[in-house]
Amino acid sequence: MLLTLALALAPLPAVAHKVIMGVFPSGDRIEGEVGFTGGKAPVGLTIEVFDPAGTKLGETETDAEGFFVFTPTQPVEHLFRTDLGAGHVAETTMSAADVSTIIARSGADAAAATPGAEATIAWTESAQAASAAPETAPPASSASGIACSPPQVTVAAVTPGEIDAIAKAVRDEMRPLRREISAYKEKNDLQTILGGIGYIVGLFGLGFYLAARRKLKATG
Amino acid sequence: MHIVDGALSNPVVIAGAALCVGGLAQGLRSLPIDKIPAAGVLSATFFVASLVHVPIGPSSVHLVMNGLAGLVLGWAAFPALFVGLVLQAVFFGFGGLTVLGVNTVVIAGPAVIMGIALAGPVRRAGPQTAALLGALCGGGAIALTAGFVAAALALTGDAFLPAAKLVFFAHVPVMVIEALLTGAAVFLAKQVKPDLFDDLQGVTP
């Protein structure tokens, strides 16, 4: 009876109180999210960042929605760790390759900041000038996944500022989607629950069989 | 209620695993053949009960139903709850495989303590008194579990009192709900199948 009651109640709030934590590259920074599945986001939670050797690289705090931002300075694997209290600890890592891409991008951005404006003007004027222009601008734009228009076209190229704005808009649009996907991954559907119960029935059936056989042997 | 991987220091994890193995051995020895189906049903109840959530602040707590398992099964609650915990770790990602031993001790330990303490009185009492005792068992098992969790965290380095307070108060709603559920279950079982609590020592296999 209790089992049926629990089963009947289960599908409604079928969310775990598991801690989820994820990090992803966001321009020249690492953006992350932490929270309980099905629960509210922890505000002002301290996230500590370590390198593979266990040296602390820094720390950051979550905002009102459970997001946090960290600017990496060293191209090593980053380990993000937080303690939500009462035995809830979350850990996640970002590989050294991802981190160095982010650092390279922030370096490129800094380098492109001044010559970027010149390059734009150069493209509108002539194709030759563009090829002679500093090489920092095209990698910055291609890294953001936006195809640069060929220099022959007179339309002005996208400025680094615009690229940043577009990348930011895309990230903002993606954020709810990302959150929805991570929530979906944590969903326990009826199949999983029934599968687990099936395992229990099977295991105890096996135990019953073994116990019964032993008993029969003892009597026979 | 489930302690996750990485929250505890290695000595605590190892000690938990050792205690868990001892409990499992004792539990399997005291599981008579006619209690195996009951153990299976209670294991499944525990497995599913963890999906019923009560939101508390930023976190949420879920039902455990270890008191009822302890009351009906005694020491045999150890293997029953262990199976439930393994499957929860594998299917839902609750807890983790390395801390399985600690989690088993933390959840099955209180079940066994409350069960052994109260099984005798429940067997002798009438349905109403038995329901009250069952409620005490359900709520008490959760309170003890909260204490055990806090103790495991304290052994790892957290200060015991704040951790214990946090875990305990987070589980007050669960205690109330479990006390009601266990009381109701015991009341029903006492009326329709009173021998459920009888052969606790059971026929030896």
What's the quick description here?
Chain A is α+β, with helices and mostly antiparallel strands and 220 residues long. In chain A, 48% of the residues lie in helices and 21% in strands.
Question: What order do the helices and strands come in, and which of them pair?
Answer:
The complex is a heterodimer of chains A (220) and B (205).
Chain A: H1 2-9, E1 19-26, E2 29-36, E3 46-50, E4 56-61, E5 67-70, E6 78-85, E7 88-94, H2 96-112, H3 115-125, H4 127-132, H5 137-143, H6 160-185, H7 190-219
Antiparallel strand pairs in A: 1-2, 2-5, 3-4, 3-6, 6-7
Helix pairs in contact in A: 2-5
Chain B: H1 10-29, H2 36-49, E1 53-56, E2 59-62, H3 66-73, H4 77-91, H5 100-124, H6 127-156, H7 160-170, H8 172-192
Antiparallel strand pairs in B: 1-2
Largest interface (C-beta under 8 Å): A-B, 49 and 51 residues
Strand order of the largest sheet of chain B: 1-2
Looking at the structure, what is the overall shape of chain A? elongated
On the 0 to 100 scale, the average pLDDT of chain B is: 82
The helix fraction of chain B, in percent, is: over 70%
Element order, helices and strands of chain A? HEEEEEEEHHHHHH
Largest beta-sheet characterization of chain A: 4 strands, antiparallel
SSE order of chain B, one letter for each helix or strand: HHEEHHHHHH
Radius of gyration of chain B: 16 Å
What is the β-strand count of chain A? 7
Q: Mind explaining what this structure looks like?
A:
The complex is a heterodimer of chains A (220) and B (205). Chain A is an alpha+beta fold. Chain A folds into two domains: 18-107, Immunoglobulin-like (Sandwich), CATH 2.60.40; 113-187, no CATH class. Chain A is built from seven helices and seven strands; from the N terminus they run αβββββββαααααα. In chain A, the strands form two sheets. In chain A, strands 4-3-6-7 form a four-stranded antiparallel sheet. Chain A has a three-stranded antiparallel sheet with strand order 1-2-5. In chain A, strand 6 (78-85) and strand 7 (88-94) form a beta hairpin. Chain A is elongated. The two termini of chain A are 37 Å apart. Mean pLDDT of chain B is 82; it is low at 200-205. The longest helix of chain B has 30 residues, at 127-156. Chain B has 205 residues and is mostly helical. Chain B contains eight helices and two strands; from the N terminus they run H-H-E-E-H-H-H-H-H-H. Chain B has one domain (10-196): Arp2/3 complex 21 kDa subunit ARPC3. In chain B, a hairpin with a 2-residue loop joins strand 1 and strand 2 (59-62). In chain B, strands 1-2 form a two-stranded antiparallel ribbon. Chain B starts with 9 loop residues before the first helix and ends in a 13-residue tail after the last helix. At the A-B interface, helix 1, strand 6, strand 7 and helix 7 of A face helix 2, strand 2, helix 4, helix 6 and helix 7 of B.
